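Submission sheet (multi-component)
Chains listed below:
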Amino acid sequence: RKEVEQDPGPFNVPEGATVAFNCTYSNSASQSFFWYRQDCRKEPKLLMSVYSSGNEDGRFTAQLNRASQYISLLIRDSKLSDSATYLCVLGTSYGKLTFGQGTILTVHP
Amino acid sequence: NAGVMQNPRHLVRRRGQEARLRCSPMKGHSHVYWYRQLPEEGLKFMVYLQKENIIDESGMPKERFSAEFPKEGPSILRIQQVVRGDSAAYFCASSPSSGVNSPLHFGNGTRLTVT
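Outcome: structure written.
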């Protein structure tokens, strides 16, 4: 079983739509959780950290359920510029990151 | 403050040659991580280094691959006797400290093509 499992998609949504991505992980010792985005095989960029209490950054909301080992990302009011691959990422105590394969999102006019 | 600098951006090598990938971390960062992304796959951890020390090399292939982060100069990822399966994007990241919440800053990668 992979350490981080994501639905690869692709998700094709119109502008303005709400879209949700899910991610499950197998290592219960994981200590930190993130969503990164990667454009066209460029370097991954941190989108947001994920906390147990849930957190929101503008149109983006992330949730963590430690008991179910499940992470989610919700994007509201999708923009064309949101088109990218979204990576679910776990962190260890010393900063090593484990990446999911990513979920491809395409937002169309 | 320059970001993480990787060079070259693109590297073409014939089978059997050596590839050297360089990474200069952000100023003030002493922790360097190397990741590899094979075509159509996610990023995979290779190695974590601090100045002059390899801390975790659990993701490094057992043969032909080595990494260093000397006291002076960039971190180097070296691949000897390259094979076609080594073709990938290699990303370096740095952070100012270790720790669960220390953010990683990624360079824009070196794309290695083995012909």
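Remark: Residues 3 and 108 of chain A are 32 Å apart (CA to CA).
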